[in-house]
Design goal:
Layout: E1 13-16, E2 19-22, H1 23-27, E3 31-37, H2 43-61, E4 64-70, H3 74-88, E5 96-98, H4 103-107, E6 132-136, E7 142-147, H5 156-171, E8 174-175, E9 186-188, H6 194-200, E10 206-209, E11 212-215
Parallel strand pairs: 3-4, 4-5
Antiparallel strand pairs: 1-2, 3-6, 6-7, 8-9, 9-11, 10-11
GO molecular function, one term: peroxidase activity
Domain Thioredoxin: 3-168
Protein name: Peroxidase
Length: 219
């Protein structure tokens, strides 16, 4: 079962394409995006890894570290990286975990605890549940979980939009409405009383209903 939002992201040690890491130490005071793949040398994941490499500057601007994962070994990740650069125009510029003992996949509820054996003997279909995105805050809590089927490539612009919302609402007592994007109006959080809201927003707010209080995005 996938870990629920608000729980502490399991810590782990793992081999990656950039050396051994301890996950919580690697995150440090940053945000982190952990995204997983069923198998190396698969077509949809190849496009995703290239797309994320091109977008890395956008994640850097937001203080978000990137970490990929596949159950295949690190040396295969390195070979796959060459194909990604050739076909997508950019190779992964972030670490990729070689989860050959399935430890991380199990800790994060992506594979059953009973799974064992040689990862290279498993097919992408065997690992089809290893297709998740976890966004983790500096407090090491899971802020968002997305689960994708193998046939649907991930929309990283949407993931950036969600990170913008998460970081805004972590700093200010607001919520973001449907289809919100950076700069749009926001909603005063329900936990804020009207008396508090008058102090925070002395200019007032739009109120189509008493439970919907709309203000400009805080700076």
């Amino acid at each position: 079962m996938t870990l629920p939002i608000g729980t502490t992201a399991p810590d782990f040690e793992a081999e990656t394409t950039e050396g051994k890491i301890k996950f919580h130490d690697w995150i440090g005071n940053s945000w982190a995006l952990l995204f997983s793949h069923p198998k190396d040398f698969t077509p949809v994941c190849t496009t995703e890894l290239g797309a994320l490499a091109k977008l890395k500057p956008e994640f850097d601007k937001r203080g978000v570290k990137l970490m990929g994962l596949s159950v295949d070994p690190v040396d295969r990740h390195s070979k796959w990286s060459e194909d990604i650069k050739e076909t997508q125009g950019a190779a992964p510029n972030y670490p990729m975990i070689g989860d050959t003992d399935f430890n991380v996949s199990k800790l994060y509820g992506m594979l059953p605890a009973a799974i064992s054996g040689d990862p290279l003997s498993r097919t992408a279909a065997d690992n089809q549940t290893v297709r998740n995105v976890f966004i983790i805050g500096p407090d090491k809590k899971i802020k968002l979980v997305l689960v994708y089927p193998m046939t649907t490539g991930r929309n990283f612009q949407e993931i950036l939009r969600v990170i913008d919302s998460l970081q805004l609402t972590a700093k200010h007592r607001v919520a973001t409405p449907a289809d919100w994007s950076q700069g749009d109006d926001v909603i005063i959080a329900g936990s804020v009383s009207n008396d508090e809201a008058k102090t925070i927003y002395p200019q007032g707010w739009k109120e189509p209903k008493p439970y919907i209080r709309i203000v400009p995005q805080p700076k």
